[in-house]
């Protein structure tokens, strides 16, 4: 467990094929790539120490989410979103430059980012208080390839299928939807859905957290 000197609003995303590294995004406008070294086992708890491998200023405002691509072994390419309404793509081998993949037309803050687990050309993002999820193709920057807008309330979560490049799950305040080209399944929760995750090893299972439950 890490204890930070100042409170960070951060998300964590481990490299797909390099489990000794993780990335965090922060309200101080930076993304930090951490190197992790496993320490001794104390009961059932693994004590973990860490060192900062790389830190960069990713945006000019708060950074709300970070996601790594599986391209090239999942070690070097990641993207981030933040309060300035942009999606930026970085390469750890060339951190002096970044590529702007998308800018929200109204400059609304972008809260979540999720990279396709099977096809690294595609990723999804969503804006604050938005009813839609934007699908992007990194080969065609700044031009969404699709907008999923079947929700009747704000979208809070996104999860790509671990076993298919064509399926994505989106979570709204009370509604869970599964998309291929069109909505194919839906689930209504008893309270506001805050986030969703699709199990990597058991693709028939999806987890949600709503209200104070999960």
From TrEMBL:
One of its GO terms (biological process) is embryonic viscerocranium morphogenesis. It comes from the Eukaryota. This is Ddb1 and cul4 associated factor 7. Transmembrane segments: none annotated. Keywords: Repeat, WD repeat. SMART domains: WD40. It comes from Maylandia zebra (zebra mbuna). InterPro entries: DCAF7-like, WD40/YVTN_repeat-like_dom_sf, WD40_repeat_dom_sf, WD40_rpt. PANTHER family: WD REPEAT CONTAINING PROTEIN. One of its GO terms (cellular component) is nucleus.
């Amino acid at each position: 467990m890490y204890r930070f000197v100042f409170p960070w609003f951060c998300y964590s995303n481990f490299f797909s094929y390099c489990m000794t590294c993780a990335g965090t995004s922060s309200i101080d406008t930076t993304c930090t790539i951490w190197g992790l070294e496993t320490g001794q086992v104390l009961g059932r708890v693994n004590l973990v120490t860490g060192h900062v491998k790389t830190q960069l200023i990713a945006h000019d405002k708060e950074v709300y989410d970070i996601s790594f691509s599986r391209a090239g072994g999942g070690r070097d390419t990641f993207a981030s979103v933040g309060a300035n309404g942009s999606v930026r793509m970085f390469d750890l081998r060339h951190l002096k430059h970044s590529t702007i993949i998308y800018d929200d037309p109204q400059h609304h803050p972008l809260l979540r980012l999720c990279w396709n687990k099977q096809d690294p050309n595609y990723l999804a993002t969503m804006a604050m208080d938005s009813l839609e999820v934007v699908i992007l193709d990194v080969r065609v920057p700044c031009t969404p390839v699709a907008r999923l807008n079947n929700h009747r309330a704000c979208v809070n979560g996104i999860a790509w299928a671990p076993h298919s490049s064509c399926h994505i799950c989106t979570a709204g305040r009370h509604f869970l939807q599964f998309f291929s080209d069109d909505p194919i399944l839906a689930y209504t929760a008893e309270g506001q859905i805050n986030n969703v995750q699709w199990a990597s090893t058991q693709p028939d299972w999806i987890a949600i957290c709503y209200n104070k439950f999960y």
